[in-house]
Amino acid sequence: MREIYKAGVTPQQKMVGINQKFGNTGIKDQQGTSRIIYDTLPSGTATTFRFFEDSASRSFPFTNTGSDGNKLGVGDTMVIESVIFSILDVTTATGRLANYYNFTQLVNGNALAMFDFEIANNKVIKRVTLSEQNSGYSKNTATEPSDLELETQIVLPPLLPYVLELRIPGAISAPAVGEIRYIQAQIIGTGGIIAPRTTF
User: Deepest in the core among 102, 123, 141, 193, taking most CB within 10 A?
Assistant: First the structure.
């Protein structure tokens, strides 16, 4: 979690404020938590990927959204603070993970890739390029940064559908024989979940 908040508001404060506008006034009494929600799609020759759309039809380890799919459950909420894209190779015969790559390793022109994020068919992130995942541009000190820190905290309220659309400048290279290549998106941040007994 960030130690400095540019807007002077913590993720928890923003989560409470936005949810109160939706009439979810009990959010301040919920259990705070850390959330990582991910979805994985086969790369093939595609150059556009719509993550979380129809994710209820996929299962672990390709997504962790469960039966709620691209909606948070009743009473759940989340502030998205960063996004990670990565590439996975899965062995066809066994279904086991063979390789895991940073997005920058396999996507040519990766700094030109861009993504949008929609909540209830409204774009809340529009045409953000992934230049920050390139070590030449990143604020991250890692040689191959994998996370993209958002400049604005985006709140996901409960029960509203969300989709992350990624567009890349060219198809991802093919995997080794006997493997299937996938691309994965993770949204990371602070969350709130129902705490019927107490808040820890």
Answer: 102
In the beta sheet, which residues pair with residue 101?
87
By CB atoms closer than 10 A (0-12, 13-18, 19+), residue 111 is: middle
Residue found by looking up tokens 């602070």 in the block = 190
Can you give the pLDDT at residue 71? 95
CB neighbours of 63 closer than 8 A, spacing ≥ 6?
38, 39, 40, 52, 55
Of 78, 55, 79, which Cα lies nearest the Cα of 67? 55
**pLDDT digit string, tens, across residues 157-193:** 889 999 999 999 888 888 999 999 999 999 999 888 7
d(CA 81, CA 174): 31
Residues 52 and 41 sit within 8 Å (Cβ to Cβ): no
DSSP assignment string, 28-74: GGSEEEEEEEEEEEE-TT-SEEEESTTGGG--TTSB--GGGTTSPPT
The domains of the chain are located at: 11-193
